[in-house]
Amino acid sequence: MTRVRGAVSRLRGRAIELKSAGELDAMRAAGLVVARALRLMSTRARAGVSTGELDELAEQSIRDAGAVPSFKGYHGFPATICASVNEQVVHGIPSRRQVLADGDLASIDCGAILDGWHGDAAITVEVGSVPSADRELSAACRGALLAGIEAAQPDARLSDISHAVERACLAAGVRDGRAYGIVAGYGGHGIGTSMHMEPFLPNQGRPGRGPRLRAGMALAIEPMLTLGTERTEELDDGWTVITADGSRAAHWEHTVGITDGGPRVLTVL
Fold first, then answer.
1. What is the C-alpha separation between 195 and 71, in angstroms, rounded?
2. β 186-190/105-114 pair status
3. Dihedral sign for Cα atoms in the order 86, 202, 33, 71
4. Which among 80, 151, 167, 176 has most CB atoms closer than 10 A?
């Protein structure tokens, strides 16, 4: 689950949480719960299946692992996953009434708490046969995530990650012959004993700025790209964020621990 820039002020001034190697191992266990739930949903997300059904599957998977869904009840959010389809960018509320159709592009964001530690990750799923532009959009977003992870090195600066994400998005746009919109005002975040912690992590910016990355930090890195504008709107449900121009969006995310040996992805199988 992403965090809007406006929420930063509520956290500003708090120290960035550092974890021991053993605590990163505990976060890895929570991350595996998330990864397994996402793998399950990726195999079940097909035409005729509702996002409400996917939500029920995710909750059962998480609870069967002895964990608790971290999104459900978070500031009143009513579900285990965020299911955002087509022009929905993030925070879509799953429903039995929202049935996936062939050609849909759906991002699924999932979080879990295990023994007090959080994991958070998102994937974008192609339902059936999607247009080539949508496939390229999702691939560009995932590539930007991988670039951000690679930049999460000890002694680097936080904005080095932001810059790597942005450069990867721009390079993908050149390769694909289109300008991808990097969603404005949303980004990644620190994570650990809470889901949203310092620091806020933008998806674009100059390198060499912000706090220095240290072993024991954990970050949720999550680029969000569109086939059009960077601007968004929030629906009347108070959660669902859509592109302002109706263009399709993609969202990929991993929880990453900073170690002396480099980035450690905590939410991959």
1. 9
2. unpaired
3. negative
4. 80
